[in-house]
Design a protein that fits this description.
Layout lengths: L18 H14 L3 E6 L2 H13 L6 E3 L9 H11 L4 E6 L2
Parallel strand pairs: 1-3, 2-3
Length: 97
């Protein structure tokens, strides 16, 4: 049986502290190295903003958005399938909203 190995990073700081910029740089670098990264954010709007920042940083080829707008009613299923089948570096943006 395959074993999932992962690390969980949590970033909490005041508004304007640079959390999104640091996350974009970190995730883009890890994706370039072949890692799969899931970024969970509180809103779909923040997912969109983060996607734009990743694309501006040159990491657009790694980004997939999976949320209620992109996969209505099937977010969990699509997220699990994507992570199980995607190859190479991946940055998945998702939200609970």
């Amino acid at each position: 049986m395959p074993v999932a190995i992962f690390k969980l990073y949590f970033d909490a700081a005041p508004a304007g502290a640079g959390k999104t910029n640091a996350t974009v740089a970190f995730a883009t670098r890890l994706a370039e190295l072949g890692f799969k990264i899931v970024i969970c954010q509180p809103t779909k709007e923040l997912n969109e903003e983060t996607r734009a920042r990743i694309e501006a940083a040159g990491g657009g080829r790694y980004v997939t958005m999976i949320n209620g707008l992109t996969q209505p009613g099937a977010v969990r299923k699509c997220l699990a399938e994507h992570l199980a089948t995607a190859t190479g570096g991946q940055i998945v943006l998702t939200t609970q909203s």
